[in-house]
Specification:
Helices cover 31% and strands 17% of the residues. The protein is built from 15 helices and 23 strands. Helix 2 packs parallel to helix 6, helix 8 packs across helix 10 and helix 11 crosses helix 13. It starts with 14 loop residues before the first strand and ends in a 17-residue tail after the last helix. It is globular, with a radius of gyration of 25 Å. The longest helix is centred in the last third of the chain and has 19 residues. The structure holds inosinic acid. The site of inosinic acid has 25 residues, from strand 19 and helix 12. Inosinic acid binds next to strand 19 and helix 12.
Length: 505
């Protein structure tokens, strides 16, 4: 007969935290959000630490190169989606790794015989008002000069004239030579009072641009997540089908962490693929397993598959219909607590700490905070990042509001059949959907949304008498709440100016 687990499957909105003693040093500015990604022995340090415990989901509508760059600059890490060709995914990883902090590959370039009209339309398309001129208009062509919107008057000058007549020619441009450090480049910018410094290869080809504004941006992003060569850190999703080709290509491109993109990771397929990667790359590869929802599956992935971290969550994602389609899954809070309990048992038995990631179903900042309090080392989110300007989808206007498309990897739109165990041997078809195709509102940049979430998280950590995520989880005392207390936590007894009354204009 089937075994029935006696506890009800629960989710994050059913819990609240009870504050602990806040001491005088428990201040937001003293809080560290550093968190391990790769397993480590007691007393040692993890091979990869996040500066902020957020990673973005390996999904087409979430994690492209732009997201990876932006998230790493804020201290987190993207997992670039694997439901694309190996070449395309590796190219995205290369783009992130070559985005040397401060040295920008120019994506607004002109040929000398392009017209001012071309320059204006390029500026409108990319939003960049500084445009290098190269012999063939390519980003790494021979550098001939630079044109900015200060060099011409859109409504006075002849827009059919070539940019070569208006650009500052190379002989009058202050430039750096490839090999210059960022520190030196910024010094040249400061001394020359320029906004932009082109960096040229020895043979005169354009390598990159350094902007004064990026210096200030860098100073404003102290959490930037960099590898030992000062390149941004990025992750990527992999599957259990083409891993023998995909993982080497990603390693070649400089990937920092991999995770299996699977709706159910408790499988021999995943064990074999993870062991293959470990045998081939040893500790040079950081690989996450999952998704799982109980302690048995955690043990299996750690002991049999030798993974570095374990991802928790089946059926809770905002676009996910796995539970209704197949009847598998578990309330995300129950799943997370069961897996974290097993992680802690494993640690006390072996002295090895295996980080746990809570993946999917985080509907607001409070739920992120509760997941970290319940013991997640970091959280993976899809919807949260799909709503930012950096997600790879175009903005659309619906009923006067701006939205972006957001679709599940198991939807007909993504057709990521490798993520799901639907196909028989040799059959790559998708027989039914496990995700929906949807829209989410655009809420701002990654930086904007994360700064609000971080402020709330740090404030709650102080309420809980903690300045590290470990202390936060160790100190956490949670209470289950009734539906009535949930309602009490809102504002049911007043008329809200925002929700209930039309705003005066
Ligand atoms: P969200 O943060 O609630 O939007 O959930 C994102 C997570 O949902 C991802 O990291 C995946 O684990 C999961 N996911 C992505 N696509 C699908 C799908 O089509 N069906 C079920 N789960 C999905």
């Amino acid at each position: 007969m089937a075994k029935i687990i006696s506890e009800v499957s629960r989710t994050f909105s059913e819990y609240l935290l009870i504050p602990r003693l806040t001491r005088k040093n428990h201040l937001p500015q003293n809080v560290s959000l550093s968190s391990p990604v790769a397993k480590f022995k007691s007393g040692e340090s993890s091979r990869l630490l996040l500066n902020v415990p957020f990673v973005s989901a390996s999904m087409q509508s979430v994690s492209g190169a732009e997201m990876a760059i932006s998230l790493a600059r804020r201290g987190g890490c993207a997992f670039i989606y694997c439901s694309q060709s190996i070449e395309q995914q590796a190219a995205m990883v290369s783009r992130v790794k070559s985005h040397k902090a401060g040295f920008v590959q120019s994506d607004s370039n002109l040929k000398p015989d392009n017209t001012l009209r071309d320059a204006i339309s390029l500026r409108k398309k990319t939003g960049h008002s500084t445009m290098p001129v190269t012999h063939d208009g390519s980003r790494n062509g021979i550098f001939l000069g630079i044109i900015t919107d200060k060099d011409f008057w859109e409504f006075e000058d002849n827009l059919d004239a070539p940019v070569s007549q208006f650009m500052t020619p190379k002989e009058n441009v202050v430039f750096g030579v490839y090999g210059i450090t960022l520190h030196e480049a910024n010094k040249v910018l400061r001394n020359s009072k320029k906004e932009c410094l082109p960096v040229l290869e020895k043979d005169g080809n354009l390598h990159s641009l350094v902007f004064k504004k990026d210096y200030f941006d860098h100073m404003n992003n102290p959490d930037e997540l960099l590898d030992k060569n000062k390149r941004l850190i990025t992750g990527a999703g992999v599957n259990t089908h083409d891993y023998k080709d995909r993982i080497p290509a990603l390693m070649e491109a400089g990937i920092d962490a991999l995770c299996f993109d699977s709706s159910d990771g408790y499988s021999e397929f995943q064990m074999e693929a993870a062991k293959w990667a470990r045998t081939r790359y040893g500790n040079d590869v950081i690989i996450g397993g999952g998704n799982v929802v109980d302690g048995d599956a955690f043990r299996y992935l750690v002991e049999e598959a030798d993974v570095d971290f374990v991802k928790v969550g089946i059926g809770g994602g905002s676009i996910c219909i796995t539970r209704e389609q197949k009847g598998i899954g578990r309330g995300q809070a129950s799943a997370l607590m069961a897996v974290c309990a097993e992680r802690d048992r494993y640690f006390s038995e072996t002295g090895i700490y295996v980080p746990v990631c809570s993946d999917g179903g985080l509907a607001n900042d409070t739920q992120i905070i509760i997941a970290l309090a319940m013991g997640a080392d970091f959280v993976m989110m899809g919807r949260y990042f799909a709503m930012t300007v950096e997600s790879p989808t175009p903005k659309v206007s619906i009923g006067g509001r701006i939205y972006k498309p957001y679709w599940g990897e198991g939807s007909n739109r993504a057709r990521n059949w490798q993520r799901y165990n639907q196909a028989a041997e040799g059959d790559s078809g998708m027989k039914f959907e496990e995700g929906v195709d949807a829209y989410v509102p655009v809420v701002g940049s990654v930086k904007e949304v994360m700064s609000v979430t971080m402020a709330k998280l740090k404030s709650t950590m102080c309420n809980m008498g903690s300045v590290t995520l470990k202390e936060f989880a160790d100190n956490a005392v949670l209470t289950r709440i009734s539906e009535q207390s949930f309602v009490e936590g809102g504002t049911p007894n007043v008329i809200s100016l925002d929700k209930d009354l039309p705003r005066e204009v």
